[in-house]
Amino acid sequence: MIFPPVSTLHEHRAHRKAAHDDPERYWLTYAHALDWMQCPSKALDAAGLWFPDGRLNASVNCLDRHLEMRGNATALIWQGEEESHVLHLSYRQLHAQVCRMANVLRDHGIMPGDRVAIHLPGVPEGVVAMLACARIGAIHVVLFGGFSPEAIADRLADSGAGVIITADVGRRGAKRIPFKATIDAALDHGAGTAIRHVLVVAVTSETVPMTEGRDRFLSPLLSAASDLCTPEPMDANAPLFLLYTSGSTGKPKGIVHGTGGYLLWAAYTHALVFAHTPGDIFWCTADIGWITGHSYVVYGPLANGGTILLFEGMPSHPRPGRWWQVIEKHRVTSFYTSPTAIRALMTEGDTIPKRYDLFSLRVLGSVGEPISQEAWGWFHATIGGGRCPLADTWWQTETGGIMISLVPGAIEARPGAAAFPLPGVTALLLDASGRILEGEAEGMLCIAGSWPGRALGIWGNDAHFHATYLRPFPGYYFTGDGARRDRDGYFWLTGRVDDVINVSGHRIGSAEVEDALAMEPAIAECAAVGVPHALKGQAIVVFIVPNGPASDDIQARAARAVTTRLGRYAAPERVYVVTDLPRTRSGKIVRRLLRKIASGDIEGFGDLSTLANPAAVTILIEAMRREASSA
Ligand code: PRX
């Protein structure tokens, strides 16, 4: 069975109604779009588990079941950064590679439920490693290539991963990104990690130090391994992966996704939003280190038997227009990227994309941040030629897949709006006191009830999941986002309402940045806020109160404290050295004021009498004025 097409408003309404009126029946029916080793008899149980008695294997769903009909069809196209580096893997070939990798992992003692970390650049082995873990019931933990060694050490320790798969280096133009050296540094740091084996993909012929007894190159192991591997039958609610993301608290949390519900949601939403048909070539530009890479580079499109494109390089390297050239060369039909990328490419103008034949494109998608009407319009007109529907898709690591989006054909687009909740998603707006807002309104975006892709919890800390998402508005899942609903019911996302900052689509907690700053002895107090930024969406601005007289390099030290602890992606845009920070009487720093001041909005503060130290605001404004006049 395949997912039904939803290409008219009538069909869209019918699906939303069916999923709303009888979710049990709706989802049990569509669960048959997956291959089960034991079919579920129930969709959602009282404990909130999806398909509680179902058993399946995600890699079988992404590979084996396509072998008979589509064994020779291309599953994966890899375009290396170098033009001539191209690889086409058929479903049969990808299946063989996954089996080999799975056998290597088993040979290294990996058992169902064990965690395997994956830290790789844009090479096919990333996809292979994820599916290999799924095949043997291991839980993959993909770590973003931009994390610092310390950030990696934290995540390795928290997940308890026993094996890590990494690369010698990553290629970025002439530059080499030190993947293996980063892992070596992380392991030197992380006395708390349980890593026994480091398996290394040789991306180049570069020599990297190998630690005897711990590190091994993968290639000879894969060649010696069998290309058949019996898949492990997994409970639908056995974790498929952990993925670390940031929230309001300092510690990143390992979001746990299960196997059955997650896979169904990834496949269902991919089919629906991208109107998937066989023969589509699907290019999602996300790194596999993010949830978008999990759901729409790997699981969704492969579960649907699609062809995925993986590109090793960057949008404008070695020259502007590289992405458009990749689309032209590989006849990409479906293209899914981020507003940050679109904003950057937009600055290159229209002439460059117009040099390429982009007529293969049929549908476009955007994800990760609010997209401005201008960026939406440019992407739609210049890349989509005005003929491709462009879906702005709102969702989160925790939701597993797309939640609010245009469904091409069924819904008319409004530039910059994420449009409507998908069938099965009950999105609500609440006011600060938890009252449901009806009709045209702006409020806190919450989801009522469950949906198959909802995360199972936070690794090792289910109470935290409950406290973060379910306690703020009892009875609802709280997203942390604000949204507006127009009079026709379209949702427009307005950004986070908590202390999460979204820099170029990277989710960073204010508290994470502040914890990093607090480790610098020269800093007595600090606060981090997000401010609007033309290219990045938001940028991080940091306020620090020095410990004693400030040294000349205190700003540089503050910035270094953040990049060392988190990674360069979290580098503060500006660091202000101040003498005091505005606080409430109970001692909490008032970030709302800092955000306003840092955004250059220094008028109209209203009543400051609730602050313990209202003078701090005046001092801050003076400091900003001085800065502005000296700039
Ligand atoms: O604030 C929302 C923003 O990204 C957050 C989720 O980040 P993450 O878990 O890293 O997942 C990113 C990819 C799904 C959300 O809470 N966000 C994501 N998509 C959109 C968005 N904000 C506005 N519009 C979107 N389409």
Automatic annotation (TrEMBL):
Residues 14-62 form the Acetyl-coenzyme A synthetase N-terminal domain. Keywords: Acetylation, ATP-binding, Ligase, Nucleotide-binding. InterPro entries: Ac_CoA_lig, ACAS_N, AMP-bd_C, AMP-bd_C_sf, AMP-binding_CS, AMP-dep_synth/lig_dom, ANL_N_sf. The keyword Hydrolase does not apply. GO terms for biological process: acetyl-CoA biosynthetic process from acetate. Residues 512-588 form the AMP-binding enzyme C-terminal domain. It is an enzyme of class 6 (ligase). Pfam families: ACAS_N, AMP-binding, AMP-binding_C. PROSITE patterns: AMP_BINDING. NCBIfam families: Ac_CoA_lig_AcsA, PRK00174.1. Transmembrane segments: none annotated. This is Acetate--CoA ligase. One of its GO terms (molecular function) is acetate-CoA ligase activity. Belongs to the ATP-dependent AMP-binding enzyme family. Its EC number is 6.2.1.1. Residues 64-451 form the AMP-dependent synthetase/ligase domain. The gene is acs.
